[in-house]
Amino acid sequence: MGNNNSSLSHKNIKTELDKEIDNKTTDLEEEKELKLKYVIPKSDEAIDITHTFHFFQRYLFQSNFSSPIKERLTQEKCKVLDIGCGPGTWLLELANQYENTLFYGIENNLIYPNEVSTHAQFQEL
């Protein structure tokens, strides 16, 4: 009698675990189907806020970057990629300052300016 009860109990646990695993698989499949929404809206007000935030950060840190690349930006022909560049404030400012460097901005929301520096290119995803 003890072996029969143990066997039934083991089958119930296995069935419960199988159901839980199936539910987790379904949850993962649903999660994959969710589309990400862009955080920054395309409104003029949001773009102005982004510009203001950029200038505040530059003032606060007294620079547009913290890595030791200034010499490379001025002397070498290098490339800079800004993914999620927003309206391109940071990118355009650096493109005007470092003419030997090419700057590329990628954004999934068409919010960057139409007229840009010859050293900056933008692309929408």
The total beta strand count reads 3
Q: Pairing-aware structural class of the strands and helices?
A: alpha/beta
Strand line-up across the major sheet: 1-2-3
Which value, in Å, is the CA radius of gyration? 26 Å
Descriptive account of the structure:
With 125 residues, the protein is of the alpha/beta class. The protein folds into 2 domains: 1-34; 44-124, no CATH class. The protein is 52% helix and 13% strand. Strands 1-2-3 form a 3-stranded parallel sheet. Strand 1, helix 4 and strand 2 (102-107) form a beta-alpha-beta unit. It starts with a helix and ends with a strand.
Fold blueprint:
Layout: H1 2-33, H2 44-61, H3 70-75, E1 79-83, H4 89-97, E2 102-107, E3 120-124
Parallel strand pairs: 1-2, 2-3
Keywords: Methyltransferase, Transferase
GO molecular function: methyltransferase activity
Protein name: S-adenosyl-L-methionine-dependent methyltransferase
